Amino acid sequence: MRAILAICIFLVTFGGVFAQEVTPETTPPAEIAPQILIQMNTFNPWAIMNGNMTEYNTTTFTLYEDGTVIYYAWDAETRESNYYTVTIDADEFMAQFDLAELATLNDKYTEENLMDANTNILKIYIPETDDYKTIEVYGFDIPDSLELILASIWDFTRAEHDDAILWTPRFVWIHLFPETNLTFLDESLVADVDLNFLFYEAFAGQVELNTPETLEDGLKVMLWYDLYASELLPLLDGKRYIRTSRSQVWYYSVEVVSFLP
Questions:
Q1: pLDDT value for 31
Q2: Measuring CA to CA, how many Å separate 144 from each of 152, 254, 255?
Q3: Nearest residue to 36 via CA among 12, 59, 9, 5
Q4: Which residue, among 75, 86, 128, has the nearest Cα to 104 in the 3D structure?
Q5: Which of 94, 149, 189, 201 has an alpha carbon 20 to 30 Å from 239's alpha carbon atom?
Q6: pTM for the whole thing?
């Protein structure tokens, strides 16, 4: 992930293309975080159906080499989902898994004829190659070694951890994808958001295009979490789209950045 201090964002609209130079006023200080050993993001299609795009993409579990875990879990008392952090023995947790075998698995497992299930994307550090193996999983027809790692993560997020504390992120990614069918757009599902908020006020200094030099495949913008939570999140409640100009509408998802504070 590379910081972009100045970038020309080409906003594609039905009426044409215009360029806006984005120069963030501030950028976050450099962080040297421990290496991630396992991270899993969960994409929940029911969030889209319920109009809750902030729950669509959650960073369910991140384990760092120093034993720090950041995870997303349901609190039975408050009846809310929150991020928590706790410290465990990373070597002991990783010893459950055959990393050499995991490295040989397919990059994607999709179960046919399965409807409305979650998609889980795993990123696993493989010491032998000093690189990450990314595996996308949709369904339950998967190798035993992959089933073990998924079960271990889900068991961890559902268990009681006495030393766990609430964790507040520093950053959040807003993923934006151009919506081209504006004719039948339901205005009740659209939140109007000022570009100045996204690229100046709450901008945390990073933008990534999904395809270089074009917005046709969307982009993501990193925001400071406190400003996102206090000013943008209330606007997004029950909304599926973000409008940044009269003719530019995006469907979106939100991804918490699991950097250590």
A1: 59
A2: 12, 31, 29
A3: 59
A4: 128
A5: 201
A6: 0.79
What is the C-alpha separation between 71 and 68, in angstroms, rounded?
10
- Confirm if 223 and 174 have CB atoms less than 8 A apart: yes
- In order of 60, 77, 90, the CA distances from 86 in angstroms are 14, 19, 11
How far is Cα 256 from Cα 168, in angstroms, rounded to an integer?
10
pLDDT one-digit tens code per residue, 108-137: 999 988 888 899 999 999 999 999 999 999
Tokens encoding 99: 């990393």
The answer to whether the beta carbons of residues 118 and 42 sit under 8 Å apart is yes
Paired tokens of 171: 């950053």
pLDDT value at residue 25:
47
pLDDT in tens, 185-222: 899 999 999 999 999 999 998 999 888 777 788 999 99
Average pLDDT score over residue span 234-251: 90
Tally of CB atoms within 10 A around 4: 15
Nearest residue to 38 via CA among 14, 85, 70: 70
Q: How far apart are CA 164 and CA 154, in angstroms?
A: 16
